[in-house]
Amino acid sequence: MASPTVPASSVAAEGLSSAQAAERLQTFGANAVEERPVPAWKRLALRFWGPLPWMLEVTIALTLALSKDLQAGIIAGLLVLNGVLAFLQSAKADRALAALRQRLAVTARARRDGIWQRIPARDLVPGDLVRVRTGDVVPADLDLVDGHVSVDQSTLTGESFPEDLEPGAPVLGSSLVQRGEATGVVTATGSRSFFGRTARLVQEARPPTVLERAVFSIIRYLVVIDVVLVAAMIGFALLTGTSMSEVAPFALIVLIASVPVALPATFSAAQAIGAQTLIRDHGVLVTRLQAVQEAASMDVLCTDKTGTLTTNHLELAAAEPYGALDRSALLELAALASDPAGQDPIDLAILAAAPESEGGWQRLDFHPFDPATKRTEAVLERVGAPLGRGGGERRVVVKGMPDVVVAACA
Q1: Predicted model pTM
Q2: Active site residues per annotation
């Protein structure tokens, strides 16, 4: 069996050739979460296979055994309605997801045949040399070989703050590069990557739905009552000498009555209406009808860290000036040492909280945050002073890790 990953040390600085990439693509497969397409007829047939459909199908068989064809036809109609509603909603969601995947197709900068070129991310293979920069979605699991980047991995790990990575560090696929530029070697793709393994676990999870638990809870109590009633009928028949053939139809009627025939169809219709409302009014794409009921049944939703379900947006909570500076002056200087173009979350939080500048300072030089130095630095001069001649008051503003700032002040 081929190894699922390729160490960075085994890759030359020139990357792979087209022939090598094609060979590895055959070995490792596409860089995408593996999807097994299911034919439409099979997806429709699966709507009639499961605990709730079985319950209705057994009811139909018992009703036919009693020669009640009309009642059996009504129950069969409810069963078909239930399955068709779920199938149509699922098919509509699948088409919408397919359209989204085409629009959001990710490309990557990879070195092939000695030149840098853009290729679809799904064509990446272990061993490819890839370049990532600010704003990029990391296309696969990488090991950095040069450069420095700050990466937001909140959607994968739940960690709200970006992680500063240097050569030799691993980078998880599907994370977001917030700052910097680096080159890395692809170590894992598709279902072998961290994201791919997580997605596969989610796909394989099939816990019982709230609807199934609710219906079976009702049936459990009804069955207990039915057993007691059937036992009473049999006891009465034995005491009175009544034939069991005469008692059997009544026992079957009691059993059929214990099955809430209309519940599955009613739930499916309600869920379909709810899904349409979510799509039309809130833009929510419902991929499974059961998801509507699952979401509605939650009383408390717990999340452990920012960025998993939130916007990963920081706000300045407090500012403590030191010495002669007041809060406004402190925030003005901090804003001048921030870069709105870099989209750093700390810079954006400071810029949002800072008052409008009174024009007392102008920036002569600016060094953005570097993971190596762990600080941002700006050279300021009083407005009106001759630029570059040293005639005005100048200040160097440093913003960064506390120990780095303290060392710079000392």
Answers
A1: 0.48
A2: 304
